[in-house]
Amino acid sequence: MIEFIVPGPPQGKGRAKVVKIGGFTRMATPAKTVAYEGLVAHAAQQAMAGRALLDCAVGCSVFIYAQVPASWSRKKLRMALAGELMPVTKPDADNVVKAIFDGLNGVLWRDDVLVVDLRVRKRYAASPCVCVQVWPLAAEPAQQEIAA
Predict the structure, then answer these.
(1) What is the pLDDT of residues 6-33, one digit of tens each?
(2) Would you call the peptide bond into 91 cis, given omega within 30 degrees of 0 as the criterion?
(3) How many Å apart are CA 81 and CA 52, to the nearest integer?
(4) Are 42 and 103 in contact (CB under 8 A)?
(5) What pTM value is reported for the model?
(6) Statement: residue 140 has pLDDT above 70
(7) Nearest CA-CA partner of 109 in 45, 46, 22
(8) How far is residue 25 from each of residues 3, 20, 28, 32, 133, measured CA to CA in Å?
(9) Residues with Cβ within 8 Å of residue 2, at least 6 apart in sequence
(10) Domains along the sequence of the chain with CATH
């Protein structure tokens, strides 16, 4: 299993913007997203410690730990850290996963198409970060398809 932590507040994948450069129109990823994907790639590269890219089906767990708002009371803070309050605010969990996976392409795995099992969890924590676990999956016995 490969495990690593992306420090700092979780960030979702930003939408590409249409830009004109030299009279040509193209799509550009926002600089904030590019920087976050670079942070993800750096954390994964350290965890890989020179190992070869994964090129098989993998399972992945992504644990998103959001920062508790500074304006909250001590009581609300305790409840959030105890898991009694859930972070139902931005960034969306699926957009964070997109940013993480795009940052891992070519660093940890060949392409994020290899992820066949995925678990995502979003909670509050004293130190915001994203914890990622990735493991190769053994071939599973053929499953019977359910007839529609």
Answers:
(1) 999 999 998 888 888 888 888 888 889 9
(2) yes
(3) 37
(4) no
(5) 0.86
(6) no
(7) 45
(8) 39, 4, 10, 21, 38
(9) 44, 47, 48, 51, 54, 108, 133, 134, 135
(10) 2-136 (3.30.1330.70)
